[in-house]
Amino acid sequence: MKFITVVGARPNFVKIASFLQELEARSDTQSVLVHTGQHYDPTLSDLFFEQLSIRKPDVNLGVGSGSHAEQTARVMTGFDTVLRQHPADCVVVVGDVNSTMACAITAKKMRMKVAHIESGLRSGDMSMPEEINRLATDVISDYLFTTTAKASENLLREGIAPGRIFLVGNIMIDSLVRNKARAEQLRSFNQYGLKPGKYALVTLHRPSNVDDPVLLKNISRSLEKIHAECPVLFLAHPRTQIQLRQAGLTSSSYQLANPVGYLEMINLQMNAKFVITDSGGVQEETTVLGIPCLTFRDNTERPETTRLGTNILVGTNPARLVEECAKIIAGHIKTGQVPELWDGQTGRRIVQILCEKIKN
Question: Average pLDDT of the chain?
Answer without folding.
Answer: 94
